[in-house]
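Researcher: First entry.
Model:
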Amino acid sequence: MWGCERWLSGRRPVAAAHRLRQAADALDPEARPDHYGEGAVVEDFERRVAELLGMEAAMVVPSGTMAQQIALRLHCDQRATSTVAFHPTCHLELHEHAGYAHLHGLKAELVGDRDRLIELADLERLHARVGVLLLELPQREIGGQLPEWDDLLAQTSWARERDVALHLDGARIWEAAPYYGRPHAELAGLFDTVYVSLYKGLGGVAGSVLAGPAQLIAQARVWRRRHGGELSSLFPLAAAALPGLETLVPRMPEFLDHARAVAAALTEVPGVTVIPNPPQTPMFHVHLRGEPDELRDRALDLARHRRVWLFAPPVRGLVAGVCTVELYLGEPALEFAPSEAAELFSAVVAG
């Protein structure tokens, strides 16, 4: 992995460290970057993200897990209920060991089917009193899919009419916006609060931002301390993400166009299926015919002999003999012509 010279999917391992080094060199050596989140580097970054998202305020949080649990807790407290609603493949459900329940006493209503997007009819079938509806844009576990704009408006209107708060898992909001052809603020403006990742699309080292109304973010800062997330210095998280905010976000439409071109080439390879087709974001899934160990070993052979990294280890799918890999085609992927990507995948699948 580390000896690869070119990366089709994901980001180069040293990219975040390089950006952090650049950011550190640009800092005033006489100034203290921040003290428990208070300082120009962090505060200016928070203000900039809030403005991009059209929100009153924002705060840096060490992890998205922490940011989202805090947001859901505050929304439920405001409405005197403990029930949250989200998709069955929501990160909180799959990857956080029910932290929302153990730490905050929240209960989950799973909405819709795990292999498709939430639909308005799914929301209309909810009978529990819900405090907050969490929507993930794009929906990672089903290939980075996005609802159409009118469907999104219908779902957010459903929540507004019932005084249900709206929270956006916008870890990849920068990747989602080009599909809609709308400013980030218009997309984020459909929601009360938004979480964004500082290391996914922005290429930082770690961390997240929670944005929303000034009063709610002030309350969230208290909860950040309760969670142990008010670190003595938060500036590395903000400083490492700032270059991505300036240089990568404006290029997301370019990354989406390239992802679609690569996906079109991959669909011509026997044993390869793209989900969704065409991709709606630079992140999409590829189903490969074969066993996971064999596909992994062939991909590693390519990495050793051609110094090319294609994808993370495949995951066995629900259909026998078919595996799934997730592709994220960012800046490094622009070095690959669609035809070369197809040739490399053909070598992996054909053996």
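Researcher: Second entry.
Model:
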Amino acid sequence: MQFIKRFFRNLWSSRRPAWLGLRILLFLILGFVVFVMLFEDRFIYFPSKYPEGDWNVGNPPAREGEIAPKVEDVWMETADGVRIHGWYCTPRQNSGGQILQLPTSMTLLWFHGNAGNISGRYEIVRKLMVEKVAVFIIDYRGYGRSEGSPSEQGLYKDAMAAWNYLTSERKVAAGNIVIFGDSLGGAVAIDLAAKVEAAGLIVQSSFTSISDMAAQLMPVFPRFILRTKMDSINKIGRVRAPKLFIHSPADEMVPYTLGRRLFEAAEEPKQFYEVKGASHNETDAVGGRAYYEAIGNFVRACAPSQGV
């Protein structure tokens, strides 16, 4: 024991170049670890606060036959008292100069990725309207018009608040809700789907865990220091609803291998839809009409009247 004490005392007090270099290296490593622990959330979440983005939405469709969303602002309060904002979008069509509200039986509850806010997803929402589904998309705490600051547990509370709003305020049956999570939103969607009985779950371009993502980006990173877990790989097995996984082998941000591992860990019924040649943020653009039809077909298959 005395030998060990003397060794470390000599290590830190020695002026020899080798020990000095080691001491500098250890201090750098310690400094890096402390830095990551203090600013971890800033490496994960990249919110755009209102008025950043294009919020001029909700105008009626202009061209004959065009289908576009009617956008309603929605405010909810989470279990820990944070006020969050979302859009409830339903399809309407210009028919003979009249704007007609189109009937929907299914609702897509959408959790977006780690950057921007809901305004940047409007074009995707608009194209989803052709599939005759309602879309409820929220901004996590700290994003868009929502209050607070993002954190893992906070995002899970935001998701539950959105679910409660749909089922309690809108009176939408759980069997008519499909949960959709994109990228980081996939972890939020999986967490919620493991707790509620939704009609289905769509996971797009998502990962197995934050720890695995860190290992992909920095193989020597000490993953044990991460507070944020987003451990989807150990939650997906608890989701009994039908599942659709969407990923591209060309995804440069979330490795395709992580998406496949997540799919393989899931229980049946499940499907995997591959969008070839799409970068992380271009899945919908590269996938085109076939991508939207795949989502629409899956949502319709989850409808209670049609079964799975």
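Model: Note on the second entry: The chain is about 35% helix and 20% strand.
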